[in-house]
């Protein structure tokens, strides 16, 4: 009832762990994979990165604001750690890099992954993530280069802040297999006692409740123009949110910040969706894009 097919991957449900939340070791990924349809790792680059100094995450009333700075172990060390992943659901490795040479090397190091998600959308690290996604030609070149060296599905994770219709259409032409939208959206918070920005990086990316309507509209818009699957991401905390994204046109959804509030979120969303589908005797895959009918 909850199974969906995503670029040839069979997911037991459409709920995917979003990158960066709980995804930096095999043991944490194994814990989530039991109930999730797939898991995405923290974004990984070739070299170890220490990221920004604290504070890096603010728990704000409508979600989170983070500027971690893509802190991550180097690729070789992380690949070693991932050998303990149990594959109870597919493994999607999220990659960050500065150019096609780096992304190709990363895809080769993680050749045991089921799919890759290319991070074109981190909003707070220069020359990476969102900066690359702003350059449609360069992003397309990266997609073509990685498609040349792997048969595995390649997802491009883009931002609601991009010219997302044009970017995703060009990436589709370049051969990308699916679009994930959205990453966090730039924002900041100021401490009223010190009168200074709270995050050490001054600004960061907003996630959680605040961005749900924005991400939902992106999915709805993209469904009209793309032939490849869309993975909606942003502010999903309830099974009703999941259904809205599926109706808008998501084949699957990614969930991140909701894990800060409940470690059991994947279990509870899955059970609620099962009850909903059971009551209606329909499969979730038959509902994809139904807001457009
Ligand atoms: C603490 C934190 C770290 C994140 N790290 C990454 C990352 O490494 N790579 C990435 O593509 N997205 C990263 N994200 C963005 C999430 O994957 C997701 O796109 C975003 O938070 C929106 O989904 P949500 O509202 O369900 O959290 C991070 C988000 C948070 C809150």
What does this structure look like?
With 293 residues, this protein is of the alpha/beta class. It has one domain (4-292): Aldolase class I (TIM Barrel, Alpha-Beta Barrel), CATH 3.20.20.70. It has ten helices and 16 strands. Helix 3 (100-109) packs parallel to helix 5 (136-149), helix 5 runs parallel beside helix 6 and helix 7 (212-225) runs parallel beside helix 8. The protein is globular. The structure holds flavin mononucleotide (FMN). The site of flavin mononucleotide has 28 residues, from strand 6.
Short description:
With 293 residues, the protein is of the alpha/beta class.
Q: How many structural domains in the coordinates? A: 1
Give the helix proportion (percent range).
25-40%
The CATH architecture name reads: Alpha-Beta Barrel
Ligand roster:
flavin mononucleotide
In CATH, the topology is named TIM Barrel
Strands of the widest sheet, in order across it, are 3-4-7-8-9-10-15-16
Q: What is the CATH domain class?
A: Alpha Beta
How many strands, what sense, and barrel or not for the largest sheet?
A: 8 strands, parallel, barrel
